[in-house]
Design goal:
The chain is of the alpha/beta class. The chain has a single domain, classed as P-loop containing nucleotide triphosphate hydrolases (Rossmann fold, 3-Layer(aba) Sandwich), CATH 3.40.50.300. It is about 30% helix and about 20% strand. A hairpin with a 5-residue loop joins strand 2 and strand 3. Helix 3 packs parallel to helix 5, helix 4 packs across helix 5 and helix 5 packs parallel to helix 6.
Length: about 375
Amino acid sequence: MAETTAEPAPLTPPTRRERVLEVRGLVKHFPLTQGVLVKRQIGAVKAVDGVDFDLGHGETLGIVGESGCGKSTVAKLLVHLEQPTAGTVRYRGEDITKLSGRALKAVRRNIQMVFQDPYTSLNPRMTVGDIIGEPYEIHPEVAPKGSRRQRVRELLDVVGLDPEYINRYPHQFSGGQRQRIGIARGLALRPEIIVADEPVSALDVSVQAQVINLMDRLQSEFDLSYLFIAHDLSIVRHISDRVAVMYLGRIVETGTDQQIYEHPSHPYTQALLSAVPVPDPSVREARERIILSGDVPSPADPPSGCRFRTRCWKAEDRCAAETPLLAVPQRFRGSGQPAEHPSACHFAEEKQVVPAEAVADNSPAAGPTSGPGSV
């Protein structure tokens, strides 16, 4: 096999939007300890282990990957709910990992989060008006006391809820309505960035599209930048401008939604996409399903070199000895494909060739062993 010729991955969004967020070398290790009275560290869970990406103004970056790959930890690091072990998170040039007190409070006003579970992210003892208006207690300069209630009513209307619901409690709403309340709370301070951590995964399929369409509209209306974390690839494609695929604490491929879905270069991305539901029966029957062998390795003891090699049909000795860089494959340069499509694979130069033993049959019983597609 030809040796991969690569160049450093360009991190600037392809549209050359103004960068509002720059993440470099982001690491988060959670210590593993042993003992009751005297604890000693025996290792670490490498939840995030060297992540780089940019977010442009008005852009949506989708992050996808299996459960446990570290995508939710990345979200918490961006809003400073977790302190990184290493790396930088720069908001408009300022490293927010070094901030505390008033400086951190000021940045948090511009980076808000929408949580995954609308049933647990809202205080059941507070009314909707108090929940949405709570950020004004922390940032009183945004809305004077006399105008806060009207602000809350306006936010309810913006997210598609009756302003008369202001005195109701969370248990009086459906799951989709609760998530709209969570979105309204995230918008209260007029942030520039919304970090949405699996915002529709706890909702019925019939409601998911409504919430996604709402977020799409709000992005234009409020000039927002989204970091959208999800495990459902079809949802990510609908809302994202660019997509980053994560595996075991690292990003293995990034690109525009078209690049990722039509020209995947990393074997893991190819496996995920092979399991995405396709409505057209003829396309579904003709498509090859890639079945990954083995289980996802433990983040406390990841494989050497390429972390995907233990499940990859392309793996060779080189994959265990060398860690592949997130770089632009030679075959994507000068081929009509935009340059910003890096992949962390030694053999990304090669077109997708899947051996028979790695491909499932097309019977209804066939399915991925670890759930790619809706990971």
